[in-house]
């Protein structure tokens, strides 16, 4: 199975500032069709996960433009600009290149 | 709008069985696969497998072969997860999630299954 490693485990951010979360996969997530199957999810407290970003950098429908994704191959980054209260929760990266889809361990974002 | 609505929380004893339902609305049920994801208390997310909602064929992740069964009531746009011979380690929230090219864009609200004697 492809291993997904996130860092940091947790991050505390002052509202209005930016935050970045890293995700590394144990093998390249680039498919032969040219698509990289890496997504980001946010799970707010006591809620279901919500899709934020798919295929590295595509913003999911209805998601704030303050979220952006970048990276390639095995190294990926989620950036959250102008952090707001509603951004609090646990962020997960997920790979969909191979079965089984595998999740990173999560990064908890808190407010200072 | 697209919704996945799951059945309510369950409290079961070890050895018992449980069946969780996930009712879909707002789209053609058989056009998208349904996936199941487990989240143990305070832990991360683990993919359990998926069911082809057109053919009814299930596929299970290695850790979920044997006691776990995915099924459909296609006429009711509902996917089900049944767990037999429940163990303490099955205590978790179980999510259904609709599969697509974007990954899991839609999720149920989760069903908490508590296994305790």
Overall description:
The complex is a heterodimer of chains A (112) and B (117). Chain A has 112 residues and is mainly beta. Chain A has no helices and eleven strands. In chain A, the strands form two sheets. In chain A, strands 2, 4, 5, 6, 9, 10 and 11 form a seven-stranded mixed beta sheet that branches. A four-stranded antiparallel beta sheet of chain A has the order 1-3-8-7, with no helix packed on it. The model of chain A has no long low-confidence stretch (mean pLDDT 97). Chain B is an all-beta fold and 117 residues long. Chain B has strands at residues 3-6, 10-12, 18-25, 34-39, 46-51, 58-60, 68-73, 78-83, 92-100, 103-107, 111-115. In chain B, strands 2, 4, 5, 6, 9, 10 and 11 form a seven-stranded mixed beta sheet that branches. Chain B has a four-stranded antiparallel beta sheet with strand order 1-3-8-7, with no helix packed on it. In chain B, a hairpin with a 6-residue loop joins strand 4 (34-39) and strand 5 (46-51). The model of chain B has no long low-confidence stretch (mean pLDDT 96). Classes of the chains: A mainly beta (112), B mainly beta (117). Chains A and B meet through strand 4, strand 5 and strand 10 of A and strand 5 and strand 10 of B.
Could you write a compact summary of the structure shown?
The complex is a heterodimer of chains A (112) and B (117). With 112 residues, chain A is mainly beta.
Protein topology:
The complex is a heterodimer of chains A (about 110) and B (about 120).
Chain A: E1 4-7, E2 10-13, E3 19-25, E4 38-43, E5 49-54, E6 58-59, E7 67-72, E8 75-80, E9 89-95, E10 102-103, E11 107-111
Chain B: E1 3-6, E2 10-12, E3 18-25, E4 34-39, E5 46-51, E6 58-60, E7 68-73, E8 78-83, E9 92-100, E10 103-107, E11 111-115
